[in-house]
Design a protein that fits this description.
heterotrimer, A alpha/beta, B alpha/beta, C alpha/beta, B: alpha/beta, 12 helices, 34% strand, C: 6-stranded mixed β-sheet, 4-stranded antiparallel β-sheet, 8 helices, 12 strands
Chain lengths: 435, 472, 252
């Protein structure tokens, strides 16, 4: 197999006739990937991360899965049954695309594969596609994504249109050594409303893969967007998720991430508040076991006054796993009356697990309410005693407490079926450990 | 009354107490710039042993090799021109035992700063350093009889190598950071203190550091060893005149608290606003020992200082209490480090910062429980108060936790003095400035109580002076 | 055999002796009250009986219907039939009352058997009605954000759902207003019967107006110094604990 960068240079992803601006963005991305140095130990944005463990060149894009495989994966793409649309991809090839209802199409909503969106709506795409990065240290990998992206979806909701059911995107990896570059672009115009679920999973426990996913969310004045992302890759996967949110005036955005899989997962999430009155929530839960490393970097930038952002990241750690939570709240000059909060809670379930917390603040306006809190500890011994006194065995009590720890985030999922499926995913991971 | 007036105007009023200088008249001057020759000159003047000179030369090599830490720290560090600084200035004096023997200009300097008066009132011993060397050093006689050693760094290494050499450069090796290396190469003055087993000092020892000359770098070195079951409180103060050009102060302070010993180290830093104050401070706490840093930073252009405690023995305790006040043109980049290396260790950090005008205060912290430890606790609280609309504060903690029954808690908050609070107090008849001072004093009040009374009164006065300026 | 029996129990914590040769026998069908000044070892006794690991048992024994429970894990002791109503019930975020009680019931079933959800909820709602608890409580996290009275009611609800042979109630009256006290007492009285023994630990006589004991024990300095009928509680209330201290300090 040829190495990834060779592969991209020899067989660029833009085989179809792409607009010139895209060809340029891809070339710039490739140059960025090739020229920027790999993350180093003394790089502040990679502090505590095991930078030495990154192996990118062992992976390459692969062909489409067999029809039998495709059928099996389609059947497994069932976490949310009540939905407004669904796309299923495997190794960056589309397996199915369930489009919108006639009614939503008539209202001007666009829900399209990226390739179709580029053909049908080049102006819209030129304005938004591959334009926003997280500023959290992964420009090199964003460049590789830009050069390589071929699968993903565009969701465009025109002014005032509300979609009640979620759009659900599944991204599978299947072939050994595959590299995937999923892309989710969400543009919500004034007072539009929508929700999106992105689900990342592997076909088997063994297939090795590299994922570099990008999601860009734009919420205009008064828009309401709820994005949930479930990362359930197998433990042979190296994963990057580079997500951004730009919130306009009075926009309400919720981001919720559930992180279960990967050998090594870097999750960057940048929120930029550009309009007064915006309200952005960022929630995440992570279950880390074995030698997994979850590296979470967040950035809450307040460029406009009177806005709210609230972050809650909860991690439970087992075995020799590691988590890194590095979060920064930045309140720009003039962004008065900002309320910005950041909370990181780490639950160490084994003495060999390691939790790192870097909760940061940069405050350049004085009339603000900002706080951050980070705590790390074990399960509370008195609570454990209390539960055991009721006759609950130690292991069961521990399980209940861990699920209770996550429930604070799970209950924010406003879809009971998905919430229950997420509980099952977490339970499955724990049952082997605490049983 | 319009609050915007308070919030928008910030006039810089520095405390003028230390802003005076005397003409220069030095017997020894290492000249401008830093080279091996500079180091040899300092070492020759001090008639040092071969090992001390080697230690300095090795440190210079490390200093030259190390990059400025601008990958995480402020770019303002690039404005330090090491080739324009004078690294050693002294009048060739031995520290006097009575103030009468101190040269007149130096004596007047310390009298204006109130040092002899404080000594009479409440101190067990005083050392007063003028540029590179101590001009005065005296300790109460009964302490001498108990075996307490309180001398300068050169005297300590020369006369008591068996006591000091085993710990010198061990808590903070020359390789720790660029400025620790610089100090290790050029150190002069400072205090070397040994408290014998079981001796508990009832009154504090004090050192006062004065920079008199322009373009000067002061590199004092302090090492305090508290033997088993002993107790000591040490206080340091500092001032410099306000010169046009930048002045550098780069100290290294090492504390060693052996089994069940207690060390409390208090700093009131009030350098003039042209001083780069880049200091490395770290204590080592053995079994059952306690190291407590009480750190107050009011002056300087840029202070970078993160007092640390290495909790090496079971049941050791570490504490950092700090107050920082950043006015226009100032950056107080301070914090704390707690390295837990044994079971049952506890650490506590409380940091309060106040940013006035365009002042910037930064908290950087590190809490490290890297190994399989049990029953360790850390609690960190950082609170920032922003006075004006253009004031700035940053918080950058780094926390690593492993092990069993360990708990780590970090909380930070940012607040301001609200227009309503000021209005309320003014309605009761206070002036705007008084109201602001009261609010700020309220913010730091809990921490001020940790300082000895004489110091907390002085600190309140300094804070009041800074605040008067802030509301115009 | 049908007794909860504590024999010559000596317990210390961090080297300090708390229970000194403590003995007490509670037969099924009886309610015993244990009164005494603060710091005399009442709560320590409760926690040691329930198997808390912080205490060092120097000597003695505890048997439940003839079976040793001292040194067993807390859940094993609970399964043997001992329930401790906590003085300060713990808050368990994210775990609902209903799920918690179900888990506790399920842990008592033989392997392979499961709980009939319909019957479970029927029983749960009936008991909540008895305790004047809103049914919405079942979905709330255990004790999380509950008032003092709500927490104590929730303790009694669990006690009644788990059907223990012996109930230890540790200062259940503390922090309750008179209405809550009545409701909680009614709940307890409903559970009284020939198959169940109670140990009601309290500092004040007030609770014993509603839960009338068969025997009152006075505890002082780590042991029982005096026992008597229900009226002893009133006597204690009027004479105060100084009387106990004066009368028994020397003999202690």
């Amino acid at each position: 197999m040829t190495s990834l960068s060779e592969n991209i240079m020899n067989k660029p992803a833009n085989t179809a006739a792409e607009p010139i601006w895209l060809t340029e963005r891809r070339a710039a991305g490739l140059a960025q990937y090739q020229t920027l140095p790999p993350p180093a130990l003394n790089d502040e944005l990679w502090r505590f991360a095991s930078v030495g463990r990154l192996k990118i060149d062992d992976y390459a894009p692969t062909g489409a899965p067999s029809p039998a495989n495709a059928k099996a994966l389609l059947d497994r793409s069932d976490l949310v049954s009540e939905r407004a649309g669904r796309s299923v991809h495997a190794d960056d090839h589309s397996l199915c695309f369930e489009g919108l209802s006639e009614e939503l199409i008539a209202k001007g909503v666009l829900y399209l594969p990226i390739a179709d969106a580029l053909k049908a709506h080049p102006d819209l795409m030129e304005q938004y596609f591959l334009k926003t990065t997280t500023e959290l240290g992964s420009d090199k990998f964003f460049g590789l994504h830009a050069a390589s992206i071929r699968a993903g979806t565009l969701l465009y909701i025109p002014k005032g249109v509300e979609i009640e059911q979620p759009l659900v995107n599944y991204y599978w990896t299947s072939a050994q050594g595959t590299a995937v570059f999923p892309h989710t672009l969400i543009i919500a115009e004034d007072n539009a409303k929508a929700s999106v679920v992105d689900i990342f999973s592997s076909e088997t426990k063994e297939n090795e893969a590299l994922n570099i996913a990008v999601s860009n969310l734009h919420a205009a004045t008064g828009a309401k967007v709820f994005r949930k992302v479930v990362q359930d890759w197998n433990k042979q996967t190296t994963s990057f998720q580079l997500d951004t949110t730009i919130a306009g005036r009075d926009a309400q955005v919720k981001n919720l991430a559930v992180n279960i899989g990967s050998e090594r997962a870097r999750y960057e999430n940048q929120t930029r508040i550009e309009g007064p009155g915006a309200d952005v929530k960022m929630y995440s839960i992570t279950v880390a076991e074995d030698n997994q490393e979850f590296d979470q970097r967040t950035f809450q930038t307040h460029n406009a006054p009177n806005a709210v952002s609230d972050l809650l990241y909860k991690n439970a750690l087992l075995d020799q796993s590691r988590t890194i939570f590095s979060g920064l709240i930045k309140v720009a000059e003039g962004a008065q009356q900002t309320d910005a909060y950041q909370t990181n809670r780490n639950l160490l379930l084994d003495p060999t697990a390691e939790a790192n917390a870097l909760p940061g603040l940069e405050i350049l306006a004085n009339d603000v309410r900002c706080s951050h809190g980070a705590t790390t500890g074990n399960l509370d011994a008195d609570e454990l005693f209390y539960m055991m006194q009721r006759g609950i065995p130690r292991r069961t009590a521990m399980q209940l407490m861990v699920f209770g720890f996550f429930e604070e985030v799970i209950e924010k999922v406003d879809n009971e079926e998905l919430a229950e499926n997420l509980r099952q995913l977490i339970h499955k991971k724990f049952e082997a450990k605490i049983a | 009354m319009s609050n915007s007036k308070i919030q928008d105007e910030a006039i810089s009023v520095d405390t003028e107490k230390g802003n005076f200088s005397y003409p220069e008249d030095y017997a020894y001057d290492a000249g401008v710039g830093l080279s091996e020759d500079t180091i040899r000159y300092i070492s020759d003047v001090k008639k040092e042993d071969e090992w001390v000179r080697d230690f300095r030369l090795r440190a210079l090599e490390i200093f030259n090799k190390k990059d400025m830490p601008t990958n995480w720290a402020t770019k303002d560090l690039e404005n330090i021109h090491f080739d324009k600084i004078r690294y050693y200035l002294s009048k060739g004096q031995q520290p006097s035992r009575t103030w009468d023997e101190v040269p007149d200009d130096v004596k007047e300097t310390f009298e204006r700063l109130g040092i002899p008066e404080q000594e009479r009132k409440f101190l067990a011993g005083v050392e007063a350093q003028f540029d590179s060397e101590a001009a005065y050093s005296r300790m109460k006689e009964d302490l001498e009889k108990e075996g307490v050693i309180f001398v300068g760094s050169s005297e300590g290494l020369e006369k008591y190598p068996e006591i000091f050499r085993p710990y010198f450069g061990k808590v903070i090796p020359s390789t720790d950071n660029k400025f620790a290396a610089l100090n290790s190469a050029t150190f002069s003055g400072g205090s070397f203190i040994y408290i014998p087993k079981g001796v508990k000092l009832k009154q504090p020892l004090q050192a006062y550091f004065r920079i008199n000359a322009e373009n000067f770098g002061q590199f004092e070195r302090t090492l305090i060893i508290a033997d088993e079951d002993s107790e000591i409180t040490y206080m340091e103060g500092c001032t410099a005149p306000k010169f046009e050009t930048a002045t550098l102060h780069s100290a290294v302070v090492e504390l060693v608290a052996l089994k069940n010993a207690k060390i409390q180290y208090i700093t009131v830093q009030n350098w003039s606003s042209n001083v780069f104050n880049l200091v490395t401070k770290r204590g080592m706490a053995d079994e059952g020992a306690e190291v407590k840093w009480i750190d107050c930073n009011i002056g300087s252009r840029l202070t970078m200082k993160y007092p640390g405690v290495v909790l090496k023995g079971r049941g050791a305790r570490g504490e950092v209490l700090s107050i920082a006040l950043a006015n226009n043109g100032q950056h107080q980049d301070t914090g704390a480090k707690m390295i837990h290396l044994a079971d049952d260790t506890t650490s506590n950090i409380i940091s309060k910062s106040i940013s006035i005008g365009e002042g910037r205060s930064t908290y950087r912290g590190q809490v490290h429980m890297p190994k399989h430890l049990k029953n360790c606790k850390n609690n960190t609280e950082c609170d920032a108060l922003l006075i004006n609309t253009n004031s700035r504060t940053d918080t950058y903690p780094a926390i690593t936790t492993r092990g069993q029954n360990n708990t780590v808690q970090h909380e930070a908050s940012v607040s301001k003095v609200s227009a309503e609070q000021i209005f309320y107090m003014m309605q009761r008849g206070l002036s705007e400035g008084e109201a602001m001072s009261l609010a700020v004093n309220g913010f730091v009040n809990e921490l001020l109580k940790a300082f000895p009374m004489e110091y907390s009164v002085e600190l309140k006065r300094l804070i009041d002076m800074e605040m008067e300026g802030s509301v115009g | 055999m049908n007794t909860l029996e504590i024999k010559n129990l000596n317990v210390s914590i961090e080297g300090q002796s708390i229970l000194k040769d403590f003995s007490l026998t509670i037969p099924k069908g009886e309610v015993h009250a244990l009164m005494g000044p603060n710091g005399t070892g009442k709560s320590t006794l409760a926690k040691v009986m329930a198997g808390h690991e912080d205490y060092e048992v120097k000597s003695g024994g505890i048997t439940l219907d003839g079976q040793n429970i001292l040194g067993e894990e807390p859940d094993a002791i609970a399964h043997a039939g001992l329930f401790l109503a906590f003085q300060y019930p713990l808050e368990i975020p994210g775990v609902s009352i209903a799920n918690f009680i179900r888990a506790a019931r399920a842990a008592r079933l033989p392997e392979g058997e499961s709980i009939n959800a319909v019957e479970f909820y029927k029983e749960l709602y009936q008991k909540m009605d008895d305790l004047k608890m809103d049914r919405k409580f079942t979905a709330r996290s255990l004790n999380d954000g509950f008032s003092g009275g709500e927490k104590k009611r929730c303790e009694i609800l669990q006690m009644s759902m788990l059907n223990p042979a012996y109930c230890i109630m540790d200062e259940t009256d503390s922090g309750l207003d008179i209405d809550a006290l009545k409701t909680v007492s009614e709940g307890v009285n409903l559970m009284r019967g020939p198959d169940r023994g109670f140990l009601v630990i309290t500092h004040y006589q007030r609770l014993l107006d509603y839960i009338v004991p068969d025997v009152v024990h006075v505890m002082f300095d780590g042991r029982i110094v005096h026992s008597g009928p229900a009226e002893l509680a009133q006597e204690l209330e009027s004479k105060g604990y100084d009387w106990v201290k004066e009368s028994f300090a020397t003999t202690a």
